[in-house]
C-alpha cells in the first residue's frame, strides 16, 4: 500500500497486454494437462482461506461480455453478476444495464472498506504519478 493507485493501474495494463493468444493457449494447455482440478479450484475459490487472510485485491473485468444483447425470451437482462463472491479481496468490474457506466462488486471485510475508500479517493485527489 506504499505505492500510488497509478502504479497499480500501470501493473494491470502490463498484465492485460501479456494476455495474448499465445499466453491463453499456454494456460489452456497447462489446465488440460492437470489430472486433478482440485488445486485450481482451491486457488480460484480461495477455499479454506476464510475471511481476513487475503492481503491482495483481485480485480476481474467483465466489461466486454455482450450480455446486454442477449435475449432469454423475456427481454434483455437487467444485470450480470458473479454467482459467488465469497473470498476476501475479489472484485468484479461490470457494465451497467444501460451501458453508460460500471458496477464494481467487491467481497471485502467491512472493517477494510474505509481503508480502501481512503486509498482510492486520496490517490484520485492527489496522484503521485501520472497514469
Automatic annotation (TrEMBL):
GO terms for molecular function: acyltransferase activity, transferring groups other than amino-acyl groups. InterPro entries: CAT-like_dom_sf, Plant_Fungal_Acyltransferase. Pfam families: Transferase. Belongs to the plant acyltransferase family. This is Anthranilate N-benzoyltransferase protein 2.
